[in-house]
Amino acid sequence: MSVNTIQPGKPGTPVRVFRFVQSVSKVTAGTVLGITMLASSVVAGGLVGLAISFRNLPDVRILRSYVPTETSHIYDIDGKLLFSIHDEANREVVPLHQISDNLKLAVLAIEDSHFYLHHGINPSAVVRAFLANWEEGQTVEGASTLTMQLVKNLFLSPERAFSRKIAEAVMAIRIEQILEKNELFELYLNQVYWGHNLYGAETAARSFFFKSASELTLGEAAMMAGLIQAPEEYSPFVNYQTARERQALVLSRMVELQWISPEEAETARKQPIGLGRVTSFPTSKLPYVTEPVIQELTDRFGRDAVVKGGMRVQTTFDSALQKTVEDTAAYWHDVLYSQGIYYDYEQGQLAIAAVDPRTHFVKAMAGGYSYKASQFNRAVQARRQPGSSFKPFVYYAAFASGDYTPESIVSDSPVSYPDGDGYYSPQNYGGGFSGAISIRNALEVSLNIPAVTLGQAVGLNKVIEICRILGVKSPIDPVISLPLGAVDLTPLEMAGAFATFANDGWRSETTFIVQVTDSGGNVLLDNTPKPRLVLDPWAAASLNDVLQGVITRGTAKNANIGRPAAGKTGTTSSERDVWFVGYTPQMSVAVWAGHDDYYPLSYGSTGGQVVAPVWRDFMLKALEGEPVESFTPAGQFDPP
To answer: In angstroms, rounded to a whole number, what is the distance separating the alpha carbons of residues 425 and 417?
Structure first.
C-alpha cells in the first residue's frame, strides 16, 4: 500500500502515524484488502454517478485559496497582549507542524483512523451506515470521515438528512482530488469547533490548558479529541467527569490501534489536568485604549478584516503608563468630588491624554474616572472649550510672523471690536488692566485682552491654519473670541498639538498604532514616525521659553515638577471647563475636568488650581527614572 502523504521525518507527519500506516498495510493484506477495494469501487462508482444529481453543490476548488477566519490580536508597544477580537469564530490558525503529534493521533484515532488511507470516504463504513439508514428510513448511523466533516463545516447545513450525507460524500471525494492529505488535516484542525466559541486546535488548547497546541501532552490531547463529537456537552468546563470519560475512550482507541502502549495510556489517564478558563469572550483590561484602536482599524480596513482577518496590531500604548493614567484619573476624581469641585459624583469627569513629542505616539489616556461607570471616552470623543490653554496657538503665530518676540510690548487696555449688531469687549479674568506689558508677562498671567489683540493682528485664519498644521481636525470658526478658546477641542488634539511645540516644530502624525500585520507577518500598515518640520523652530523655541514661565512664575505654579516643563492653564467662562496642557521634551499631556452636563464646577475653579496638580501627579510618576532634559534655547535658531 502506498500512502504518499505520510513519510517519516516529513514536517507535520508524526512518526507514530507512519508506524500505524505500516501496521494497517499488514492487516489489510489479503481478504480485507480485497473487500475494501471492492467496496471502494462500488461505493465510489455509485457516488460518482449520483454526482450528476448534485450539480448545484458548492465548487470545492475555492479551498485552494481558502483562509479560515481568524482572531485579531492587539498588543502594547512592548508586545504585551491587550485584547483579542473576533466575530462568531474565535480562531488562531497554525500550520500542521505546530500542532502536537499527540493531538493529531488522538483526533485520528477517535474520528477517522483510516484518514490517510481513504479518498474522502471510508467505503466499508459507508456501506454499513447506508444499509442501516435505509432500513430505518432516517439517519441513525454515521460514517463521516474527517474530510466529510470538513465539508459539512465549510459548505453544508448541519441538518441530519440522507441527501446531505450523500452531498458530503460527493464533495469529500472532490476535495480529496485537489488537496493533499496533510493540507486537509491542517485545514480540519484549524476549522474544527471545540465548544465555547473556540475554533481550531490552537485557540482551544490555549483556553483549555493555557498552552499552545504544540505543547499538549497525551492526556490533554486525548481529552480535547474526545470533545469533538459534542463539544458543549463533553466540555471539561461544563462536566469534568464526562470529559475524563471521553479522554479514557480516546486513549483506549489509541491502544486498540496500537498507536500507543497500554502503559502510555495509563500514564496519560493518571496525568493531572490543569484546566484554563474560557477565553472566547474576553473583556479588555484597558478599554480606553483598545476601543479607539479597534475603531481606527475598522475605519481603515473594514469590520470584517478586523474581526476575521487575524490581524496583529502593535499599538503605541505603554501598559504600565496606561495603568498609571487610569489610577491618576480615578484618584483625582474622588479628590475633586470630596473638595466640592463637582456637584455630582457621576457627572463630574476627568480626562487625560499623553503623547510622546519625539514620535507623536499616544502613550496613555483616560477617558474618564472609570470605564465601568461610563464608556464614553472623553480623551478622544469629548469636544470642550479649552479656554486660555488655546492662547499658545495665537502667540506662536505672533512669533512666527517675525513681528513679535517674547519681550515685545503689547497693550492690556480696554478694547472693543464690531461683532454682529454690537461690539465685543474682552475682559481679563478678575477684571482690571495692566497697561503696557511684555508678551512674556501677558502669557504667564494669562491676560485675555493682549491675546485677542494679537489674534486680530496676525489674523484668525492664520491661527486656524497653524491649528490644522498641528493636527487639529475639529471645526474652528474665526470668531473674535477664538484666542480665548471659543472652540471645542478634544484633550488628545491639545496634547498632540503641544507635542509639536515640545519637539521644536517637528511633527509626525499622532497615532495609536505602530504597525499592523496579517497572521503571516505581511505588513498592512506601518506608522513608523516620519517627522517633518512644520513650525518655525525659533518661534516654537520662543514659545517653549515663555510657557516655562507659566509654571515657574505664572498661573500654573501647582504644575511644577522640578525639571524643565512648559504649559498653559485654561478656564472657561462660568467654570464649565478647566484645563492644563503641559509638556517636557519627553511627554505632552492634556488634562481636562468638567461636568458631562456642562454644569459649572464650584465657583472660582481654575485650571491652575484644579487640574495642574493632577498633571503634576501624573508627570512625576510618568517621568520617574527618565533623564532630565531641557528645551532647545531660541538662540540656537535664526528668527523668521
So the answer is: 7
Q: In terms of DSSP bridges, do strands 312-315 and 72-75 run parallel, antiparallel, or are they unpaired?
A: parallel
For the chain, the helix, strand and coil percentages under 3-state DSSP, each to the nearest 5? 45, 15, 40
Task: Determine contact, residues 383/408, Cβ cutoff 8 Å.
Answer: no
Q: How far apart are CA 48 and CA 37, in angstroms?
A: 16
Contact 292, 512 (CB under 8 A): yes
Banded pLDDT at 40 (limits 50, 70, 90): very low
Place of cell 480623551: 379
Q: Grid coordinates in use for 269?
A: 489517564
Which residues are CB-neighbours of 187 under 8 A, at least 6 positions away? Answer: 63, 66, 68, 150, 179
Question: Under 8 Å CB-to-CB from 35, ≥6 apart: which residues?
Answer: 124
Beta strand extents in 377-416 (DSSP E only): 409-412
CB 538 within 8 A of CB 586: no
Altogether, the residues listed in the chain come to a count of: 640
Which residues are within 8 A (CB) of 429 and not within 5 positions of it... i.e. 6 or more apart? Answer: 388, 446, 448, 571, 606
Compute the distance between CA of residue 484 and CA of residue 428 in angstroms, rounded to an integer: 10
Can you state the angle between helices 181-191 and 146-154, rounded to 10 degrees? 50
Distance spanning both ends of the chain, measured CA to CA: 86
Task: Measure the CA–CA gap between 69 and 88, rounded to whole angstroms.
Answer: 9
Q: Which residues of 388-426 are buried (b: 16+ CB within 10 A; e: fewer)?
A: bbbbbbbbbbbbbbeebbbeeebebeebeeeeeeeeeeb
CA nearest 150: which of 133, 126, 129, 171? 171
The set of residues, in sequence order, having a beta carbon less than 8 Å from that of 640 and lying 6+ positions away, is: 399, 400, 401, 402, 536, 538, 539
What burial class does residue 59 get, using C-beta atoms within 10 Å of its C-beta: 0-12 exposed, 13-18 middle, 19+ buried? exposed
User: Each residue of 357-401: pLDDT tens digit?
Assistant: 999 999 999 999 999 899 899 999 999 999 999 999 999 999 999
Instruction: Write down the number of H helices and E strands in the chain.
Output: 24, 18
Catalytic residue among 84, 388, 481, 542: 388
Q: Considering 70, 92, 111, 176, which one is annotated as catalytic?
A: 111
Question: Cell numbers 457627572 label which residue?
Answer: 347
Question: At residue 412, what is the residue type?
Answer: D
pTM here is 0.71
Residue closest to 484 by CA, chosen among 618, 611, 390, 581: 390
Alpha helices in 122-239 (DSSP H): 123-136, 146-154, 162-176, 181-191, 201-209, 218-225, 231-234
Q: How far apart are CA 374 and CA 371, in angstroms?
A: 5
Q: Which residue has the higher pLDDT, 54 or 583?
A: 583
Is 88 a residue of the active site?
no
Closest CA to 565 of 532, 530, 533, 589: 589
**Residue 116 half-sphere exposure, CB side, CA atoms within 13 Å?**
27
* Amino acid of residue 34: G
- Model pLDDT, residue 632: 97
* pLDDT tens digits along 459-515: 999 999 999 999 999 999 999 999 999 999 999 999 999 999 999 999 999 999 999
388 belongs to the catalytic site: yes
Cβ–Cβ < 8 Å for 548, 581:
no
